[in-house]
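Side project, low priority. Logging it here so it doesn't get lost.
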Amino acid sequence: MSEEHSFDVIVIGSGAAGLDVALQLDAAGVEVAVLSKTELEETNTWHAQGGIAAVLDDADSFEAHIRDTLIAGAGLCDEEVVRFVVEHAPAAIARLERYGARFTRADDGQYHLTREGGHSARRIVHAADATGREMEESMAAKARRAPHITIFEQHMAVDLIREHVPGKGYGRIVGVYVLNRNSGRVDLFRARAIVLATGGASKVYLYTTNPDITTGDGIAMAWRAGCRVANMEFEQFHPTCLYHPQAKAQLISEAVRGEGGRLLLPNGERFMPRFDERAELAPRDIVARAIDHEMKRLGIDHVYLDISHKPADFIRSHFPNIYAALLKFGIDMTREPIPVVPAAHYTCGGVMVDMRARTDIENLYAVGEVTYTGLHGANRMASNSLLECLVYAEAAVHDLLARLEDIPPPPPLPAWDESRVTDSDEMVVVSHNWDEIRRFMWDYVGIVRTTKRLQRARNRITLLQQEIAEYYGGFRVTSDLLELRNLALVAELIITSALRRKESRGLHYTLDYPEPRESQRHPTILVPDRFWGCEFMLEGHLS
């Protein structure tokens, strides 16, 4: 039997962005539901290794952090947003420590700050090489104890619900339909406001550093509900993912290069100085493209990352988790180089929000990797992502608390209708389409693109979208079907955006337009041409 729930605010997603919003609202006495697609702690945040960029050293400055971010963003960052995020970084770190997070300290008691690609100074606050885990576990533990937070694990959002007045159009967000993965039924959740914190869409590619949950759900739901998206062509490929037949999404942190790791060809030759004067510390797009170039030039499957010239104790103390993980695959990073290959890592575009984290739809907010804020531009600088989650979580909460009392309660809403669907007897269709999308996105919409490859991808996704829509309309929803539907839509948005950008800039590199163009120095904004989410027909005026 389906259930109905009502809250002041619903947070969809349980990573750093979502939990930070929930914890701040809880402190203000707001009743919050946190919807977690799987277990509460199984998030992209938990897997983050490197750290959080913040100016906490007298030798560093906000201006330097801003400048580094603007350079990495290849001319597409919003400077006002960059300044806003950078200047709020110290407060975000302090808030995490109040939640219980503990960061690595130097012998003098100060933060041990490391340096990563694109940064001109040591400004990465970290908890050894498992910063995300420290953040997620401390925030999740506090959320489980919070008196005003109700946690729903194994609950996957299906679609947002908007009010609709005939003749007047679509209005505010009033709820969301949610698949209870334990019962298999779709429940109704009503709220005054909803916050999307669902993460990115890197699972749209065959090889990724991300866990299986990053299927672009929030981006797809927001688009179907009528939100604009921007800069979807800028998918960041992390340069160094472990290359091993038994490894799955094992990231080798940027900090390994920050502490002196060198990228080598199979013959031991160091190659990054040929591509950029910053060598291994160049921004990720440059490093990933250089590796891709060398792999194609030499016909090799991977390159190597070597830090074995550093003392073994140094390596083990700085990278205890990476060291232990590699040993399981028979690799001792204190003695030998690590085989690595680029993999999809971070979605720089997403749902457009303003500096209060508001989307285009009244009472719908979005925070974290699901968004386009203007911070990252054409390429995200390392460790700015967790920072963005925290700063925009605070912005969303500040705006929500100022408005919440004036937002009318959600109206009664209809339950999910399953009267015209049946259980699928051909789930192989879902798995086949899922695999096909991820393979052609890797082949045609990857690190290096061409117009011809993109057109091939567009043709394939058009056909698959039709097939998926027919399947979705006839069968009872499952998490696999919902993820496939969302992945296909996000793939279409990425392809469309990539075809519109007639230049190479940052993470978007095409052989047909190899140079940046000043006329293209603006975000790629896509606008939905129709509403195809869920609606509630409201008699009378919008409330």
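Brief comment: DSSP finds 15 helices and 19 strands in the chain.
Revisit when time allows.
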